[in-house]
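Morning!

This is the sequence you dropped in the shared folder:
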Amino acid sequence: MWLDQHTKFDVDAVPHPVFGIAANILSHHDSGLHAHRVSQILFTRQGCVTITLNTTLCLLPPTRAAWIPAAIPHRAQIKSAVDYRSVYFATDVLEDMPKDVEILEVSEVLRATLERIAQASLEKDWSKGPARNLLAVCMDEIRRAPRVPTRLPLPSDPRLATLEIADLPPSLGRLRRQIGASEKTIGRIFQRETGMSYQQWRQQWRLMKAVELLAAGSRISEIAQELGFSSDSAFISFFKHSTGTTPRAYLRSLNTLSSSASV
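The structure's back. Tokens below.
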């Protein structure tokens, strides 16, 4: 079922065990913190979605899917145009899936089945005939999909309550002055609560933000400046070291995948 960005839709009011929606959001959108009684697969064909949980920040880049189990509070934020699909499952339909949010690699088969389900009517019966077979393939692809490391654990220590994650996190020295704790103390907090040093955590934030900005069409020079790199070449070197590819090559791959998703 197609929705526009102004349509109000209550997921929990739909009585069917499997159903989907398709939408094209053209501007900023914030779902607010919420949860469903059903599990969700959120798939972006174009554009990025940021998903915030209590202790984790997840980035959903183009042609990836987020598995969001039932009853998990989450907040989805969109800062630029996004073409997305959501498919919902009653809790007894995919019982063997993880109990936490996961970002999944989307195969061509999974993409095709999600499209079919998302664009079908809400009343579609997926329990018989060809529809049942399509759903079985979709669920099998979801179970087998590789997980993509686009998650950033968030520290919960009260001393870091002022740490702003919407913008580039401060340097370690600046953070030390900001919260009045030593660099050793900050390091212990981040290692304990995120499994990373502060510098590693900050670099992961920069990488996730770089992917988001690339998907939104920002130029490399703009990204390098926004993320605090001394030059374009410094940003390119960082990105290639982190991902194994250059920003331009990564962007070409996104455009290729988005084009194939439109076919």
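Headline: DSSP finds eight helices and eleven strands in the chain.

More detail when I'm at my desk.
O.
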